[in-house]
């Protein structure tokens, strides 16, 4: 049996047998650091030709996006970043400048979020490969897990979706840029090349909660908004009623995607927003402080769910 | 300019510009966890065809060796392990069994040293690639750095060298196994396939020091004994007098290596012992508790050094 035949989900189930405790969140809780705080760790591997292409992603953006992906995983756990390590595999004929630009992008992203590259490894490999690990910390009673959504929770998206997908399309098919005013096209391309982790949401949640416990379920939407909703509901054993008509579609999306605009929003991926399930009053408080956030549904018992409308027909399956 | 033209050392110097503080140890100190303790993190990437070959390394051993390499880096900083993450890149036609065996080897290695795999990532890549990150902690006043060797320090090797190199030779040229009694050949092969991190040395040092500060310079010998001596001396701005005649050569090495036996000891690499520079009385205390340890020289001012005899003609240069 080959890994390509069993798919990623089954592979992850097999791997979980060799790992401690529960996997299944964007990061792993490693244990108490100082009293009242838990350490969180997360790792991502990015392979040229699989996760990025020289055609659409400059070396700087490879670094920036890798930083965002990992910091977003920390945000998805409610954690602040503490430091990043980077293992870089590159062929011997890689331009030195390419390597410097990758590190520059990663270092700039880290710096913007008050953290830094603290170490790593550099080795020879057949294609460029980046493996980033980020460590952070979160108050013990404010950890965001996927599995703790409760019936009655509001489902909140911290920002718009489909923009990264639109930016990618503009990069792959430059003639499409003529369909939009140049600043709008540039904005969408920027959304793809320089996404931001929502660590600001973590800061706001801490402010709202002060030192009180927070019970929030969530994850980031790096694999798509629909995927995040389905994963959180599956992990929590609940259903959801999603109001598809209420989900904001960026005004430039229909020009590019036509009838596919909603699909880009639901399945596009790589927007690095957070999908949070939380008590309605807390959701309202957060909403009042995050202009881009939106409540898109409600957690319900499984038999009242309308999640079947979110069949993930385009979600990213690494081994298919 | 290509990375293959500038070599690994220069590349690491360039990369250091984008990283926080000092790099140059086996791991990076990330900051205080609980009062009096520092967190240490280390990352290694292993690429099939570069760092391991299916011919000499089973999937289980790929996992085990990757675990050892990272835990050895923690030991080299004086740290206990806290947890390991693993990012695995594999082609879609990789047997599922291969993946399970890699994780089994890594999990077994982790378990033997009271730690565990806490998370990771699995992606598609053109060749199998493993990137491991290990996190540990060390008392703030007992961190082992490369740069703190002092004139008068004894130079201590925690165990024999050249055994991993001998084991590799036996695997690459099985007919050589006839030169040794079978258990001896198996022992050397085991040294190559299942090396052990010297976390026991860390425990002994803590025991000896109790809560007093320790000033020890050191690193692991994964890139060879000679390389470790040169690196520690360079980082500390000191020289050394090494007594080459005093360095133990395992009795089976000359049968396999002939006149090259000492070169295998000095430059073989991957024995995962520790090279420590410490006050002579402390070295004696450690020596009395570690049967395999040996004092092989003394730290001296640069002008009295005999390090030029250790020209690293066979050391591992990733990009050449």
Structure described in brief:
Chain A is of the alpha+beta class. Chain A is built from 10 helices and 10 strands. Chain A is 36% helix and 22% strand.
What key phrases describe this protein's structure?
60s Ribosomal Protein L30, Chain: A; 10 helices; five-stranded antiparallel β-sheet; globular; alpha+beta; homodimer; Phosphoribosyl-aminoimidazole Synthetase, Chain A, domain 2; 320 residues; 10 strands; 2 domains
Percent strand of chain A: 15-25%
Please state the overall shape of chain A, judged from the principal axes of the Cα atoms. Answer: globular
> What's the helix-strand series of chain A?
HEEHEHEEEHHHEHEHHEHE
**Mean of residue pLDDT values of chain A:** 92
Please work out how many helical segments of chain A DSSP would assign.
Answer: 10
Mind telling me the CATH superfamily name of the largest domain in chain A? PurM-like C-terminal domain
* N- to C-terminal distance of chain A: 14 Å
For the record, the CATH class of the largest domain in chain A is Alpha Beta
Radius of gyration of chain A: 19 Å
Give an overview in words:
- The first copy, chain A, contains ten helices and ten strands.
- Chain A has 320 residues and is an alpha+beta fold.
- Chain A folds into two domains: 3-141, PurM-like, N-terminal domain (60s Ribosomal Protein L30, Chain: A, 2-Layer Sandwich), CATH 3.30.1330.10; 146-310, PurM-like C-terminal domain (Phosphoribosyl-aminoimidazole Synthetase, Chain A, domain 2), CATH 3.90.650.10.
- In chain A, the strands form two sheets. In chain A, strands 1-2-5-3-4 form a five-stranded mixed sheet, covered by helices on one side. The first copy, chain A, has a five-stranded antiparallel sheet with strand order 7-9-6-10-8, sandwiched between helices.
- In chain A, helix 4 (163-172) crosses helix 5.
- The two termini of chain A are 14 Å apart.
- Chains A and B meet through helix 1, strand 1, strand 2, strand 3 and helix 3 of A and helix 1, strand 1, strand 2, strand 3 and helix 3 of B.
